[in-house]
């Protein structure tokens, strides 16, 4: 079991899985969750500033979370997510993009309860050219080892 104190900071880890954006999966997700015309219709997308069909932000976030689960790790003493900070959409995800995720634990601080700590991890979704598409910092509450002893 990995506790708050055990987490190694500043060592990026990448997903073993990837996700290829296709017109079909972009449209399917957007049709149900974000039917903005440039996400569901090629002609509307062609008239947009992007100029082609592109994925909804919530689709890209869902891909990020899904791919993060393909990163090998031991069981952790995580309790709950506390929230995301610094969410940025750096560039659109477009048809043909092969997406992967990188997670780097960047900070750790005590929580208000002595038996808990907060771990901050940077999530970066990037394409086949290594360009970051989406990034955010995820805050997770974890148990501290001293409290488990």
Structural notes for this entry:
There is one protein chain. With 149 residues, the chain is α+β, with helices and mostly antiparallel strands. It has a single domain, classed as Thiol Ester Dehydrase, Chain A, CATH 3.10.129. It has 5 helices and 6 strands; from the N terminus they run E-E-H-H-H-H-E-E-E-E-H. It has helices at 23-33, 37-40, 42-47, 57-68, 145-148; strands at residues 13-14, 19-20, 78-89, 98-110, 116-126, 132-143. Strands 1, 2, 3, 4, 5 and 6 form a 6-stranded antiparallel beta sheet that branches. Strand 4 (98-110) and strand 5 form a beta hairpin. The protein is elongated, with a radius of gyration of 18 Å. The chain starts with 12 loop residues before the first strand and ends with a helix. The mean pLDDT is 95.
Largest sheet geometry: 6 strands, antiparallel
Low-confidence stretches: none
Whole-angstrom Rg: 18 Å
Tell me the strand percentage band.
25-35%
User: What is the CATH topology classification name?
Assistant: Thiol Ester Dehydrase, Chain A
Number of domains: 1
Helix content: 10-25%
Classified in CATH, the superfamily is Hotdog Thioesterase
In whole angstroms, how far apart are the ends?
A: 13 Å
- What is the strand tally? 6
Shape: elongated
Name the average pLDDT.
Answer: 95
- CATH architectural label: Roll
Q: Which CATH class?
A: Alpha Beta
Helices, by number, come to: 5
SS class: alpha+beta
Give the topology string: H per helix, E per strand: EEHHHHEEEEH
Pfam family, one: MaoC_dehydratas
Organism: Parazoarcus communis SWub3 = DSM 12120
Protein name: Dehydratase
């Amino acid at each position: 079991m990995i506790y708050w104190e055990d987490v190694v900071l500043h060592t990026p880890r990448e997903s073993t899985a990837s996700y290829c954006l296709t017109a079909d999966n972009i449209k399917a997700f957007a049709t149900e969750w974000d039917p903005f015309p440039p996400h569901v219709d090629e002609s509307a997308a062609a008239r947009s500033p992007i100029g082609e069909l592109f994925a909804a932000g919530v689709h890209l976030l869902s891909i990020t979370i899904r791919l993060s689960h393909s990163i090998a790790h031991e069981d952790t003493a995580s309790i709950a997510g506390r929230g995301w900070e610094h969410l940025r959409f750096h560039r659109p995800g477009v048809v043909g993009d092969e997406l992967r995720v990188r997670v780097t634990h960047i900070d750790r601080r005590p929580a208000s309860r002595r038996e808990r700590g907060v771990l901050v991890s940077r999530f970066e979704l990037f394409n086949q050219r290594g360009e970051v598409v989406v990034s955010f910092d995820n805050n997770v509450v974890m148990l501290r080892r001293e409290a488990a002893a």
